[in-house]
Design goal:
Number of domains: 2
Shape: globular
Order of helices and strands: HHHHHHHHHHHHHHHHHHHHH
Helix content: over 70%
Number of helices: 21
Strand content: under 5%
Largest sheet: none
Number of strands: 0
Radius of gyration: 22 Å
């Protein structure tokens, strides 16, 4: 196993794509094992992606592509502006509230950051926000938004661990609201210190018009989650419904999706989906090799011998997730982490639904962690500021998010409350 890890680190250092680094390192590990058939690489590659559940990924990606410039994202931001723009730090609240609305549809943190950032950052800069401050608020809100379902990482985590994806979606809502409330309070205090003025209060007529304009966009999450929670369709079928609905709304209601745009969206969806599926396939081979080599069992025994048990393991997991997700990006990092950490969590009695929400929460922070977080550079390009300037404003927000992540990790009822109330999951000990 040491040879495989060394090969993986070397491949990543040489700039080899993560999917091929995982598969190549696993192949080297197999060749070093006595009697291990190299043909296992082909069978594990196909088996990893031969899953009905994983069909949700390309359809949620397509839905996000269609909504980003199909009229839906802009109307959701306009609705957020008239609802909360008048509060101190109003435009920051618009970003946070708008991210909750948009994240609940797009399924992609990068899409959230790009769509909301491109709409809001120029406006925030006109109203006195520096590029670094505006970018920091967008980055923090996008990191929070990963908890708002649908979430691609929840789909992948559920498919790997056999945890109900519907239960994972429901479990993300309350932690997301806790995180959003903490960020809203933080940025309002920050705005008061900076002397930033709120926008004028919108009239009820303006709010009514914005709500009517966004009604088709708001109906989408109702259909998706109502269908999943009501047992009408599976999460995979919900992804198809989301894509079809986004196409219908963009073409026939808002009339902003042209054939040329639809073609580009389909091409981008195919490219991104192919990358994701290759990473899942490569990680599957690597995880099988680690299981055969009993790596999770060895790590679990070491943690138990340290005397910390479940509590120490959860705390160490949060710290390790923060580092690994920043270094390896979100989904590749999760595909590396799950095969190692989930078996240990099971041996120590950690509930996998709760563990998945912890993992997703920390992933949202790590995606925007300076100086490596991949999402950070998306926002940085839109904000037009230096990394140093954004980091100065972003680190306090990330500290707030980290504290909330620890609360979610060690107060599990926040995770269990909604899925238990909906009958989707039975909390441990209940």
């Amino acid at each position: 196993m040491t040879g495989s890890l060394a090969a993986f680190i070397a491949f990543v250092g040489l700039g080899v794509p993560i999917a091929f680094a995982l598969g190549g390192a696993a192949a080297i590990g197999l060749m070093m094992m006595d009697g291990a058939p190299i043909a296992i690489v082909a069978s594990r590659t196909f088996g990893a992606i031969d899953s009905f559940t994983l069909l949700a990924i390309p359809f949620f990606i397509l839905a996000g592509e269609l909504m980003e410039t199909g009229g839906i994202s802009q109307r959701l931001i306009d609705l957020a502006r008239v609802m909360v723009g008048h509060v101190r730090g109003g435009l920051g609240n618009v970003v946070i509230f708008g991210m909750v609305l948009f994240s609940g549809i797009s399924g992609s943190t990068q899409a959230d950051a790009a769509a909301v950032g491109s709409v809001m950052i120029p406006s925030m800069k006109k109203h006195g926000y520096s590029g670094g401050r505006a970018g920091a608020i967008v980055a923090a809100a996008a990191g929070m938004g990963i908890l708002v379902p649908p979430c691609l990482t929840m789909v992948v985590y559920g498919s790997i661990t056999n945890v109900s994806i519907g239960a994972l979606f429901a479990a993300g809502f309350l932690p997301a609201l806790f995180m959003a409330a903490a960020l809203a309070v933080h940025q309002m205090i920050d705005a008061r210190r900076a002397g930033l003025e709120p926008e004028p209060r919108a009239s009820w007529a303006e709010r009514g018009r914005a709500l009517a304009s966004a009604s088709w966009a708001l109906l989408m999450p109702v259909i998706i989650f109502g269908g999943i929670l009501g047992g009408v369709f599976t999460p995979t079928e919900a992804a198809v419904v989301a894509a079809v609905y986004a196409l219908f709304a963009g073409m026939f209601i808002y009339r902003e999706i042209t054939p040329a745009f639809l073609y580009r969206a389909l091409v981008r969806t195919g490219v991104v989906s192919g990358v994701v599926m290759l990473m899942i396939a490569g990680a599957n081979i690597f995880s099988w090799l680690m299981t055969v080599e009993q790596v999770p069992h060895t790590l679990a025994r070491l943690i138990q011998e340290a005397g910390g048990g479940k509590t120490l393991f959860i705390f160490l997991s949060v710290l390790m997730f923060l580092v690994l997700f920043a270094l390896l990006d979100g989904l590749p990092g999760m595909l590396m982490i799950v095969p190692v950490f989930v078996p240990i969590a099971q041996q120590l009695g950690v509930d996998l639904l709760h563990y998945g929400i912890i993992m997703t929460t920390v992933m949202g922070i790590a995606l925007f962690l300076p100086p490596l977080g991949v999402g950070l550079f998306i926002v940085l390009g839109i904000a037009g500021c230096t990394l140093r300037e954004m980091t100065r404003h972003l680190l306090p927000y990330l500290a707030t998010m980290f504290l909330i992540a620890l609360v979610i990790a060690f107060v599990p009822w926040i995770t269990y409350l909604l899925p238990s109330a909906l009958g989707l999951y039975t909390a441990p000990g209940s």
